[in-house]
Amino acid sequence: MKRSFLALLVFGTFQLSAQVQWSGEVSAYVAKSDRSQNPRVLNKGIPTFGWRLDLFLDGAITENVFALANLRVTEDENIFIDYAALRLTDLASLGINFQIGKFDMPFGNLGERRFPRKNFLFGLPILYEYRMALPMSLTTKAQLLNNRGKGVGMRLIDLGIYDVGAMIFGDVGPLHYAVAVANGTISSTYNRSLNANDDFNKILRIAYTPLLGLTIGASASMAAYLPDDGKPIPRGGTIDDYRQRIGEVDLEFSRGLFRFFGQAVYSEWDVPLETQDEKLSVIGYSAEAKYTWFPRFSTAARVSGLRFSQLDFEGVQRRWDYDMLEVEAGVGYALDRNAVVKLVRRETRTLGITDPHDNLTVLQFAVAF
Amino acid sequence: MVDPKNPLARAFSFVYNSATLTLIALSFPIQSVLPQEQARRGELQGKIVMTKGNDMNRPAPKVDRYGTHHTPSTGPAATLPQAPAYKLSQQAVVFLESDRWKGQKFPISSTRPVMDQRDIMFSPRVLPILVGTIVDFPNSDNLFHNVFSYSQTKDFDLGRYPTGESRSVLFERAGVVRVYCDIHAHMNATILVLDNPYFATPDDEGHYSIKNIPEGLYTLKLWFGRDTVETRSVTIKSGEITTINLTY
Fold first, then answer.
1. Where do the domains of chain B lie?
2. Around Cβ A250, how many Cβ atoms within 10 Å?
3. Most B CBs within 10 Å: which of A14, A120, A212, as the mutation test of the B interface?
4. Which CATH architecture has domain B36-247?
5. B25-36 pLDDT, tens digit each
6. Cys bridge to A253: A180, A260, A279, B24, which one at CB 3.0-4.6 A?
């Protein structure tokens, strides 16, 4: 019902648009991973074919008002409206912009790399995809530790961080700023349900570009993350007392035929466990680089990982999830200006358990139109 | 001085002088045109009349929705600037084709043609050059561009370079080279690598002129934007001005 409403809103808005531009991207892949139990294993190790279609709509309603939408369809025939927003630019000729609707939260520097054609490799860095042990609901210490390595909880950064909210953003000289409020948190965007709790996510991002090709950014966010599902909170608290606080720094550098992106994230959750409140934290990091050796031909590599804090369980200190380390490398060949084929190998290490070594090999084709 | 009594020295001198003269002659194929051949040349001129307008080349506004930062002095952060429509002189070329010029070499101008990157557009949109020409690609914007081409005629990738810097590319084969920017998808241009120097870009009113054409029968083509839009047969007569008006 809610999605139908959003779809009506989007396409109704576009009817009002004076000028509409459609574009899109299709990608398909064949992937094979090994058969271990890691949640990064794809389809139990069975060779898998998948595809994805992204449609982008840019509608200019007036010179300063735009309607934007992204529609994503995947091989399991799910339809996602990732982006449905109104943007007002250059408010009162001050260079300040305002956006409201559903859109990507201003946190980090993922940018267009979220789409297969601009992505150097396959998928997103592990901190965007890996489901940690901590769920977005009440849990116990035993459940939490039992969840380790099973891929059932929140992601550190929830994929594209598409959420419902409002944002003011702009530039002052080499400084870029964005301030947003949103419905969910960076780790749980609640993009399919509104009003999960009464707290808004408060997000701030600042990026500084001292010279062309070099940008240093930092983002921070704070919000309650537990949903209002009617369960009593231990020790009489309310769900709004339990927050996620997350911050990150990022760096982008490009020059000539070389590009580099780096990001480090720290997040902390107040968790109402059965005996006492705990602060659980995790550090995530990612670094990736691409070099174009010849026209059409490039190589890329990425290292990303997660490192979890420790928790006392029956007198023994244990990490609340297994640390992860992932290394990816790939080659890309541009068949055309708008089409690229990539061969990527991904090695995933789950540290601290036996059989820690997982891998994935994938051939992916992406074309924009 | 060569000793006239020494046959070996005379033979060496003959070979040396012949080779020198041949080299000089090969170096100046056009400049060494004999006066009578010069007289057998004519001129082609005319006017291009535009009936379709220029707005077809104006890109629709594109919103930069995933920008995580912006570069100062590029306009409002939320949208890419909508560039003004190209002038006729920046996107139209008139040129002649003939089999008689296949394999023939013509002197290259010492002035390098330029394809500028300014206001997040290529300028000009169509650049005609002679085979063997080096083209400069300066970046005049206060942001990165990444000029590249995957055309069979010439593929290259110049990477990202800052304001004020320039990169160069040598075009060794005749043909059409499509040029793009890897960062700004709406940016596109065409380099026409031609096998003869008989081409012209019109002025903004559409007037064009190609001088000093050897007499004969040729194919006249009008290139506009991305493609050839008009083809005519034209006969050039010595000492005459042939007028061909083209409508698009």
1. 1-31, 36-247
2. 23
3. A212
4. Sandwich (2.60)
5. 444 444 444 455
6. A260
